[in-house]
Design a protein that fits this description.
By secondary structure, the chain is mainly α. The chain has 13 helices and 2 strands, in the order αααααααββαααααα. A two-stranded antiparallel sheet has the order 1-2. β1 (116-121) and β2 form a beta hairpin. α10 (172-191) packs parallel to α13 (247-271).
């Protein structure tokens, strides 16, 4: 049992500030251990890490003094800030060491029940706020894995997730439209047709029926896709009217549609021995 879980069993839980302080302490202990030793630092990170780190986070440095990195974490105030800066370090590690540093960070977050996940795209790692674990696994993590067969859609979906991680009331419509673009691109690659989301309804419904989905459910799914499209046109694509509190549903609904279609296709391929 984790220390934090044991405390909660005793009715002695930690508040968010205490978790933030504990995360900082864990990170500082780790950084002091690996950055203070020249050979270790050179083995793990790229040359001139202090310079590249400071350029990335936009902070003033004393050239090549590793203490600048440690101090950068000390002056940070939030768990999100600590995690974001550690992600910068992971992306500045030599390729063979990134998985090790990522494991360290995930262990820190898991031990403190800090609800963030780390994903990767061609630009490196980025953090993403967790929702319900079952939904995140089924409707975010798994679609990302399966979308490797649909690279353009995967790139669009990853961009939408990255924007979602920085969601505000002001950019909610932009983020929603990015999820729409991801789904539209997915349909284009899935059906090998350069068509808009508005014009894909018949292919979508026909695909469901061809896979033996009962009419009662396939008709409902067509209606759901139409409602999704109408919402995007009325509140995101053509108008800036999306509410921030709708974005989690939009994200999961986008993943849900893609997951269902990929699941049905994978089942067919498995049955055909492909």
């Amino acid at each position: 049992m984790k220390y934090i879980d044991y405390r909660e069993k005793l009715g002695l839980g930690f508040d968010n500030q205490q978790k933030t302080d504990m995360l900082l302490n864990k990170i500082l202990e780790f950084l002091n251990k690996i950055l203070s030793d020249y050979q270790t630092r050179e083995d793990i990170f790229v040359k001139d890490i202090v310079y590249f780190y400071s350029q990335e986070v936009g902070e003033r440095i004393i050239y090549n003094d590793y203490r600048n990195i440690v101090n950068s974490f000390v002056v940070e105030k939030s768990a999100e800030g600590y995690i974001s800066k550690f992600i910068v370090l992971i992306n500045l590690a030599k390729k063979q060491n990134r998985a090790l540093l990522l494991k360290v960070l995930k262990n820190f977050m898991e031990s403190l029940n800090i609800a963030y996940e780390v994903y990767e795209d061609e630009d490196g790692y980025f953090i993403f706020p967790k929702g319900a674990a079952e939904l995140d696994n089924a409707l975010v993590s798994e679609p990302l894995e399966w979308l490797n067969k649909y690279p353009q859609a995967r790139a669009e979906f990853v961009q939408a997730l990255k924007d979602y991680s920085e969601l505000t009331a002001e950019n909610a419509s932009h983020v929603a439209d990015n999820f729409r673009k991801a789904l539209e691109r997915f349909f284009q690659e899935f059906f090998n047709r350069n068509c808009t989301l508005e014009n894909i309804k018949s292919e979508y419904g026909g695909f469901m029926k061809s896979k033996g989905v009962p009419a009662e459910l396939s008709n409902n799914l067509e209606t759901l896709l139409q409602a999704y499209t109408n919402f995007m046109n009325g509140y995101a694509k053509h108008h800036n009217k999306t509410s921030k509190n709708l974005l989690e549903y939009i994200m999961y609904q986008t993943g849900n549609i893609m997951r269902l279609m990929i699941t049905l296709k994978n089942e067919e391929e498995a049955n055909n021995g492909d």
